[in-house]
Design a protein that fits this description.
The protein is α/β, with parallel strands linked by helices and 404 residues long. It is built from 15 helices and 13 strands. The chain has 2 domains: 160 residues, NAD(P)-binding Rossmann-like Domain (Rossmann fold), CATH 3.40.50; 146 residues, no CATH class. It is globular and about 60 Å long.
Length: 404
Amino acid sequence: MSVKGPKIAFIGAGSTRWTSRILVDIFVNDGLRNSKIWLMDIDDCRLNIISTLAKRLVNKLKLPIEIYATKDRREAIREADFIISAVLPKGYSYYERMRDISEEHGYYRGINSVEWNYVRDYHTIWGYYQFKLHMDIARDIEELAPDAWFFIVSNPVLELTTMIGRETKVNVAGICHGFLGYTTAIKVLAMRLAREKLGKNVTPYFAAHKLEGYKEAIKLIDLDEFEFDMKGLNHVIWLTKFRYKGEDGYKYLDDWIKEDAEEYWAVWREHTTNIWDLDLCPAAIDLYKTYGYLPIGDSVRGGTWKYHWNLKTKQYWYGPYGGPDSEIGCAIRILEVRRSIEEMSRIAFDNSKSVLQAIPLRASGEVIATLIDAIYNCKETSNYEIQFSGMRIKAPIIHNINVL
C-alpha cells in the first residue's frame, strides 16, 4: 500500500449526490488514505455544497485526506493521478429546450431519435458542447497530467471514450454501472425457485420491492452455481450467458414469462415509484423474445420505434411514467436533481447534526474507488462487493469498462 496517496480530481463535482457517493467509497477504502481530492465545478453554490460536505466527513472520520475546491479546471488536473468527469455542459434545461425544438419539427422526444442510437436523443447531435468540453479536458490532461487515468461517467460514455481514445494519448476508461443489471437474472431465479422449493409465490413482493416478502427466496440461490456473461457496448448490453447448476438459466425466465409476468406487471404498475425500474418491464421481455438475450441495465430503454411512438406507447412498454425518457420521466429526473441539491445543501450546512446521520458510510455500488485503489496500489482486482437484496455479493469489474 502506498504511503503517498493519489491526487483525484472531480470535474463537474457539483453533481452533489453522485460525487458524495464516490467520496464515501474513497473514504472507506483503506488503500486510498492520504489522498488529495480536488473538487472542481463552475457553479459556486454547488461547489460550496460538495466541498463543505466532503470536509465535514473527513474531519468527522479523522481521515488523512485533503480536500480542495476550485473553479479552475487546469489547477484541478495538474499532476493528478485520476481525473473523473461527471460534467453536463449547459445542464438538463438545455436538453429539454432541444427536445422542444425537435418536437416542433415533428420528432417526438428528440431529433436524434433514430433506431441506430436507441430511438432517443442521447447527446448525439445536441451533444456538441459535451464532446467539445471533454476534448478540452483531455488536452489539459495531456499537458498537465500525462500519466493520469481519465474516467468518464458522463454520457454518452462510449462515444466520448472512443473520441478521446482515438484522438489523444490519454489513458481513458468509460465507466457505467448499468452492467449491474445482471442481477435481474438472480431475481428471476429467486421467484422460480420459491415456487419449486417453497411452494410460495413471491412475485408480487419482487414487483413491489418488498424485501421482507422475498428475502427467504433469495437465500435459496447458490451463487457459486450461478454463471453469467454480458457482451455489448455501453447502454447496449445483453446477458449472453445465463446458467444455473450447469443448466441453461434462461429456462427459468421462459417459465417466469409464461406463469408470472402478467401478475408481476400488474403489481409493478400499481406500486412502482422509480422511473428506472425497468429490468423486467414489458419492453425488456419483448426485446428478449426478439433477440434471444435479456437486455441489461439501460439497454431496455432502446429498441425500435415500436416502443416509442408517443407517451401512451411508452407507458404500455415502460410503466406508468413512460420510463426515464418520456416527457414525464424527464420532468421527474430534473425534479430529482433539484431536490437532491437542496437535500445535500441541508446536510452540508446543518452543523446541529452529525453529517454521518445523513450520509451512511457504506459502499455505493459504483466501481470507481475500487479501480483507483487497484491501479494506484498495483492490486490485481477482478471483482468488488455490492449490496443486493440485503446481502453482499461479488460483482465483476471487467464488464463495465470500455478502454479504447
